[in-house]
């Protein structure tokens, strides 16, 4: 873990933004102080002793601390938590539940750092914890904070911005969604390179009273990057350029097509990652869970206490096994992808482009109006069941992480939005018809191909179209929001025959 300190452009901040930042940091410090006081009072209930390497250390139980401080509207352990001895939500109404938990984590960290000392230093009875500074920590989540890098000429104030959650007026407005406070950063090329090296885990906002300026501390987990081409002692510029377009599907987990300078697709350039063995195992567990659920639903006089009922216990065990198997299935799929990518890097100057199917689950639930003006589902129950267990965001992030750890540059792994890639013909670019679910037929050029392969080809072509855009200087990754300069992809302009 490494901290990266970046200065906020305080001279370009408005009075409203300065007041907001002061109020947010002040509120958070008061909440942290309250948490520390509660931990001191309720030491017997909250603290547990853990022995590590012969040393006894004090650890705060966060779940028990929540039971003392935070109320809940939803059921937790079969009961709603409406009454709490130390109700912080009443004391600080202009704060969200997630932000309370963030402040709790900081307070726990301060408490443990103060009391878990070395063997030689003995803690006295009247030991006081160090004073809490004006800090604000947030975990990496799009709902809590966003880092955005804008291209040149789009904004005169700053190119880099951080959007922090502003939950001070949510109760007054009587809305669930929180606003964002956008802060301009004075970020150099050095800072941008350091952020690209790893993954931003948390953010800390600090005020320096002596200099009268605000600072942002990014906590980054650095991923060790070693160039794959340097390991093999090969210059990638001497190798022929190629683009691997990957489509993530329902029935077939992944399909890929390699676009080379020949302008033709050979059978060696087509990849299907079907995972048949893993699918059989998953199907067996799915059938077992379905049968048991039906049996329990048919029984009228089922036991109210689910812990004592044997049927519910076995169902719980089966679900856990299914969950572990699905995790293993996901990692096995990513390993297979990575093996093929490594083989292709030996012969080609490769760029991997993955199509990210954003909003697939929500689109399947929507209703489409028919020609007779009757509401008709855009998908069947069968397809919804298939799409539901797939977490596409997790697949793409894991694949990206795997590639970076094993030595591929971040410019070589891109995610693009696969908009209209499955409905357009890969040869002429016009709209197609689907006579069968797995096939695509073009009525204009009479070209038929597998639906997943057409999607993979169109994803690769979409990347090539970005290179020939006029006035474009950067290429944006759809998932991470990083800007990559087009000078890195100059050798890939030789694949323009795919766009003809």
UniProtKB/TrEMBL annotation:
<protein>
    <submittedName>
        <fullName>Transposase</fullName>
    </submittedName>
</protein>
<dbReference type="GO" id="GO:0003677">
    <property type="term" value="F:DNA binding"/>
</dbReference>
<keyword id="KW-0175">Coiled coil</keyword>
<feature type="domain" description="Cas12f1-like TNB">
    <location>
        <begin position="392"/>
        <end position="459"/>
    </location>
</feature>
<dbReference type="InterPro" id="IPR010095">
    <property type="entry name" value="Cas12f1-like_TNB"/>
</dbReference>
<feature type="coiled-coil region">
    <location>
        <begin position="275"/>
        <end position="309"/>
    </location>
</feature>
<dbReference type="Pfam" id="PF07282">
    <property type="entry name" value="Cas12f1-like_TNB"/>
</dbReference>
<keyword id="KW-0238">DNA-binding</keyword>
């Amino acid at each position: 873990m490494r901290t990266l300190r970046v200065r906020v452009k305080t001279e370009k901040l408005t009075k409203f933004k300065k007041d907001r930042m002061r109020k947010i940091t002040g509120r958070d410090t008061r909440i942290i102080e309250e948490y520390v006081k509660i931990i001191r009072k309720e030491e017997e209930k909250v603290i547990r002793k853990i022995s590590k390497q012969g040393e006894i250390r004090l650890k705060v139980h966060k779940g028990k601390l929540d039971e003392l401080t935070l109320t809940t509207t939803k059921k937790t352990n079969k009961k709603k938590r409406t009454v709490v001895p130390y109700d912080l939500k009443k004391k600080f109404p202009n704060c969200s539940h997630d932000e309370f938990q963030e402040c709790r984590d900081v307070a726990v960290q301060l408490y443990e750092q103060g009391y878990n000392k070395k063997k030689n230093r003995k803690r006295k009875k009247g030991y006081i914890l160090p004073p809490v500074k004006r800090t604000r920590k947030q975990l990496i989540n799009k709902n809590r904070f966003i880092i955005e890098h804008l291209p040149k000429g789009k904004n005169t104030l700053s190119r880099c911005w951080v959007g922090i959650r502003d939950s001070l007026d949510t109760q007054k407005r009587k809305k669930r969604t929180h606003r964002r406070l956008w802060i301009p950063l004075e970020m150099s090329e050095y800072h941008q390179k350091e952020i690209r090296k790893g993954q931003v885990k948390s953010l800390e906002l600090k005020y320096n009273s002596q200099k009268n300026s605000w600072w942002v501390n990014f906590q980054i987990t650095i991923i060790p990057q070693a160039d794959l081409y340097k390991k093999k002692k090969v210059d990638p510029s001497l190798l022929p350029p190629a683009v691997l377009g990957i489509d993530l599907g329902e029935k077939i987990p992944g399909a890929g097509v390699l676009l080379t300078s020949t302008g033709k697709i050979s059978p060696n350039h087509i990849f299907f990652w079907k995972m048949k063995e893993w699918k059989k195992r998953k199907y067996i567990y799915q059938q077992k869970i379905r049968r048991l659920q039906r049996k329990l639903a048919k029984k009228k006089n089922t036991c109210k206490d689910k812990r004592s009922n044997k049927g519910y216990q076995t169902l719980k065990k089966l679900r856990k096994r299914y969950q572990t198997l699905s995790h293993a299935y996901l990692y096995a799929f990513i390993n297979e992808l990575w093996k093929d990518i490594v083989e292709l890097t030996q012969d080609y100057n490769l760029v991997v482009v993955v199509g990210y199917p954003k909003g697939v689950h929500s689109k399947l639930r929507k209703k489409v109006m028919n020609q007779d003006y009757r509401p008709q589902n855009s998908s069947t129950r069968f397809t919804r069941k298939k799409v539901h267990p797939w977490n596409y965001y997790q697949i793409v992030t894991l694949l990206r992480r795997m590639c970076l750890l094993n030595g591929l540059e971040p410019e070589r792994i891109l995610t693009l939005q696969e908009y209209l890639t499955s409905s357009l013909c890969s040869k002429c670019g016009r709209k197609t018809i689907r006579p069968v679910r797995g096939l695509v037929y073009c009525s204009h050029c009479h070209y038929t191909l597998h639906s997943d392969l057409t999607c993979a080809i169109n994803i690769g072509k979409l990347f090539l179209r970005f290179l020939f855009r006029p006035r474009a200087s950067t290429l944006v990754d759809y998932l991470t929001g990083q800007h990559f300069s087009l000078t890195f992809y100059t050798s890939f302009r030789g694949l323009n025959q795919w766009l003809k």
